[in-house]
Every structure is written in structure tokens, then in C-alpha cells.
Amino acid sequence: MTAPEVQPGGTVSTFGGRLEELRDGYARIRYPFDRRWCNPKGTLQGGVLAVYLDDCMGYAILGSRGADARFSTVSLTVGYLRPVGGGDVVAIGRVVRAGRQLATLEGDILDDAGRLVARGMSSVVMLPRAGSAVDVGGVRPGTPGTA
Question: Which helix (H) or strand (E) holds 26?
Fold first, then answer.
């Protein structure tokens, strides 16, 4: 699967992101700087950077499992290294390890000078594909109280 084969929606499009590269276990998304997403000091708010990391890591798992893969983030840890006060940022997601039920992902955000501004780690649980009767972790599609 490549970037042109995927039409990003959700938060990627809300924040003006552009999927630049998508391949097995790797995704790169470029986001334009937008003052609407800044804190009172004029730098990108940390929660926005966390969204960018969650997006790029999610697309990395799609790159390895296919566009119809379903998953849910169960943990997300972000370390902030420097503020972003202007210029595009690039979010890069990578699959560290992907098992049948869980995947571990990592992501970096780089500023327009290529400097690392944030790093994230995430764990996602893999969910049954739509229409699948496969049992994943004891959860069957259509079971009340499940995603």
C-alpha cells in the first residue's frame, strides 16, 4: 500500500495533514503550522503534537496490515523536546513489533529544520476486520460492550 492509495480523513485532514509516504511499517505525514492549534505562548499545543504522533503511528500499522485493518490505541506516551513556533512539522511513525493481538509503535515529530521536537511510543490492540468472525482476544464482532 502506498500513500496515493489511501485517502486520509479524520484528524489528519482536520489538521491539514498530507500523507507523504506509506509503506510496510512506516508512515510520514506533513502538517502545516496553524496558529489555531497554538497555546497562549504561540507554540503548538502538546496535545496537538500527541494527535500527530497517534496519526502517524496508526498509519504505520495500516501500511503493514492493510487499509482495512482495525485497531485501537491502548497507550500513548509522548516526550516533548522543544517547542514548535512556526513552519511545517513532519510526523514519522514506525511499527516496532506487531503481533496477532498487540502492536508496539514509535513516532517522531521533526520541525522544518529537521530537529526532533517530540517522540512517542504507543501500543495498539488489533480488532477483528469488519465482517470477520475471527475471535481476537476473546472479543467477537457484535458482542455487546465491545468496539
Answer: strand 26-31
Q: What is the pLDDT along the chain (147 residues), one digit of tens a residue?
A: 555 456 677 899 999 999 999 999 999 999 999 999 999 999 999 999 999 999 999 999 999 999 889 999 999 999 999 999 999 999 999 999 999 999 999 999 999 999 999 999 999 999 997 765 544 444 444 434 444
CATH architecture of 3-127: Roll (3.10)
- Sorted by where each begins, the domain ranges of the chain are 3-127
Q: State pTM to two decimals.
A: 0.84
User: CB–CB of 88/122 below 8 Å?
Assistant: no
Give the contacts of 13 (CB within 8 A, at least 6 positions apart). Answer: none
Q: Cα–Cα–Cα angle for 61, 108, 95, nearest 5°?
A: 25
Kindly tell me the sign of the dihedral angle through the C-alpha atoms of 136, 132, 73, 60: positive
